[in-house]
């Protein structure tokens, strides 16, 4: 099997045709990079979305936890990942507490 090349300047991406919107990857991400977004064409009414790609720390928890092999993280040699910050942790907590969706009124702490 060939290794999939990362899209240019992209730390994490989703193959939505394979994704069943189970939200396991959203729960696994410690940096609040992923969120479920409303998607009327999806069976469950939602689809995974990469909402903060610049916050990706490259831990691969999302990729490793995906039961459908639908999410991918770039190789460390291909991308310079962020460090885990307090604002990333707070965003992830807000996402978890809101049913794995970023709250509509969520504002980053600066």
UniProtKB/TrEMBL annotation:
Can the keyword Lipid biosynthesis be found in this entry's annotation? no
Recorded hits in InterPro entries, A to Z, give:
4Fe4S_Fe-S-bd (IPR017896), 4Fe4S_Fe_S_CS (IPR017900), Fe-S_Ferredoxin (IPR050572)
Looking at the record, the residues that make up the 4Fe-4S ferredoxin-type domain are 10-39, 47-76
Q: For this protein, what is the EC number?
A: 1.2.7.3
Q: Which PROSITE patterns match?
A: 4FE4S_FER_1 (PS00198), 4FE4S_FER_2 (PS51379)
User: What is a GO molecular function of this protein?
Assistant: metal ion binding
* Keyword field contains Isomerase: no
Q: Which UniProt keywords apply?
A: 4Fe-4S, Iron, Iron-sulfur, Metal-binding, Oxidoreductase
- Its name, as the record gives it, is 2-oxoglutarate oxidoreductase, delta subunit, putative
């Amino acid at each position: 099997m060939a290794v999939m090349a990362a899209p240019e300047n992209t730390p994490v991406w989703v193959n939505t045709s394979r994704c069943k919107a189970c939200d396991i990857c959203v729960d696994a991400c410690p940096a609040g990079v992923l969120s479920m977004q409303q998607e009327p064409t999806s069976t469950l009414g939602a689809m995974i979305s990469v909402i903060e790609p610049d916050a990706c720390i490259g831990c691969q928890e999302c990729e490793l936890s995906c039961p459908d092999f639908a999410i991918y993280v770039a190789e460390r040699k291909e991308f310079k990942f962020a460090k885990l910050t307090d604002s990333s942790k707070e965003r992830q907590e807000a996402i978890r507490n809101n049913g794995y969706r970023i709250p509509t009124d969520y504002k980053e702490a600066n």
